[in-house]
Design goal:
By secondary structure, the chain is α+β, with helices and mostly antiparallel strands. It has one domain (about 25-115). It has 2 helices and 7 strands; from the N terminus they run αββββαβββ. The chain is globular and about 35 Å long. The protein starts with a helix and ends with a strand.
Length: about 120
């Protein structure tokens, strides 16, 4: 009986810890372009954006966060990311890479994939 209770408690703890997403996006495996850091205002909303890459690969990984720290949709984040990257790194037509998109748990920070 005690072994079953202990196993159940351990399983519940692992489930809770395993499902929890971090509040910030993990960018440790990416290289950040410091000179691409920007604060933009789009339709009255201010955003902080940064661009990252994986060395020798094409897509940009763009982090988008509203300055008021409120949640946003992927559509809002993608619009901001596209407007941000066009004048900075696109020499070819922009292609959204939705397969690279991800967000933190409360959707206040998005990483948007764009190739160009």
């Amino acid at each position: 009986m005690k072994v079953t209770s202990l196993a159940g408690l351990a399983g519940l703890a692992l489930l809770i810890l395993g499902c929890a997403s971090p509040r910030a996006l993990d960018t440790r495996h990416l290289t950040r372009f410091d000179e691409y850091h920007a604060n933009l205002e789009i339709a009255g909303q201010r955003y902080t954006l940064d661009a990252y890459i994986v060395m020798f690969q094409k897509p940009f990984y763009i982090t988008v966060q509203r300055d008021d720290r409120r949640p946003m949709s992927i559509d809002e984040a993608a619009r901001a990311a596209e407007e941000y990257i066009k004048p900075r790194g696109c020499t070819e037509p922009l292609v959204r890479r939705a397969d690279l998109d991800r967000s933190n748990a409360d959707k206040t920070q998005w990483m948007v994939g764009i190739e160009c």
